[in-house]
From TrEMBL:
UniProt keyword Transmembrane helix present: yes
Domain of life, source organism: Bacteria
Name assigned to this protein: SDR family oxidoreductase
Transmembrane regions: 136-157
Stated family: Belongs to the short-chain dehydrogenases/reductases (SDR) family.
Enzyme Commission number(s): 1.-.-.-
Lineage, highest ranks first: Bacteria, Bacillati, Bacillota, Bacilli, Bacillales
Pfam family membership, one: adh_short
Length: 248
């Protein structure tokens, strides 16, 4: 790679895992595009980065809309001239019980978690190929991409899809030196699990985590950063666990 700074696009950068990942990439010297539909939260992430002397900009995106994701990639390249890392991380966790299915919730989860990742893979790889960049695309899967729980069958389907899309895209894009990797967190202490906390289920979930504490979003962020490095070149088409043993 040249001496030019890397440019990393991080969706879901307004909160949780995406925010912590944005902070780490910036701290390590990368330029970061914080992408989210939550403008206030995204700008807060940018302010935190700038306070620490890092470089970042916010771009609003709705990952469930292909034109919006394509515009995100275009604007990134207009602003910073390149795109080296695409972290497709934005996601939602709506319950979708089989017995009382709400079609809107079902479609929304698939649109954001599954189509959103597909759009990110397609738009970013297209641009990386156009610019001849040996990039890396990292997608947030979950242990729930291969472990089931009751009441959210669409969420499980989307995370399973993220794993298989990552593997297939990795096989296809290897010829262009573009890697695609899925990172699978376990249970991470972010706003997405507030519902479980409200029901008093978070402690129970933590029992399955080595050390007995919920995984902190910074820990997942560090895994994402490690996977993004050139030194991780052999990690391709893989599911990298960031679950502190949850699925063990
Ligand atoms: P979070 O709720 O803190 O962050 C999710 C972010 O995605 C929010 O900033 C939200 O505004 C953004 N977002 C949602 N829909 C969007 C859309 N259509 N367009 C643009 N941005 C959108 O949750 P967390 O935990 O940081 O989640 C990040 C990813 O990690 C998700 O894909 C989630 O499924 C996954 N994950 C989370 C786990 C956990 O226990 N917290 C475990 C395993 C995976």
């Amino acid at each position: 790679m040249s001496n030019e700074k890397r440019v990393a696009v991080i969706t879901g950068g307004a909160s949780g895992i995406g925010r912590e990942t944005s902070l780490i990439f910036a701290k390590k010297g990368d330029r970061v595009i914080v992408a989210d539909y939550n403008e206030a939260g995204g700008k807060e992430t940018v302010a935190l980065i700038e306070k620490n002397g890092g470089e970042a900009a916010f771009i609003q995106v709705d990952v469930s809309n292909y034109e919006s994701v394509e515009a995100l990639v275009e604007q990134t390249v207009l602003q910073y001239g390149r795109i080296d890392v695409m972290f497709n991380n934005a996601g939602i966790g709506l319950p979708t019980p089989v017995a009382a299915l709400d079609w809107d919730a079902y479609h929304r989860v698939i649109d954001v978690n599954q189509h959103g990742v597909a759009y990110g893979i397609i738009a970013a790889s297209k641009k990386m190929r156009e610019l001849g960049i040996k990039g890396v695309i990292i997608n947030t899967a979950s242990v729930f991409g291969f472990l089931a729980s009751a009441g959210s069958f669409a969420y499980h389907a989307t995370k399973g899809a993220v794993i298989m899309m990552s593997k297939s895209a990795a096989l296809e894009l290897a010829q262009y030196d573009i890697r695609v990797v899925a990172v699978a967190p376990g249970v991470v202490d972010t706003p997405i699990i507030q519902g479980y906390k409200d029901l008093g289920m978070a402690d129970e979930m933590a029992h399955k985590v080595m050390g007995g504490k919920l995984t902190q979003p910074e820990a997942v962020a560090k895994t994402v950063y490690l996977v993004s490095l050139e030194e991780a070149e052999a990690i391709n088409g893989s599911v990298v666990m960031a679950d502190q043993g949850y699925a063990s």
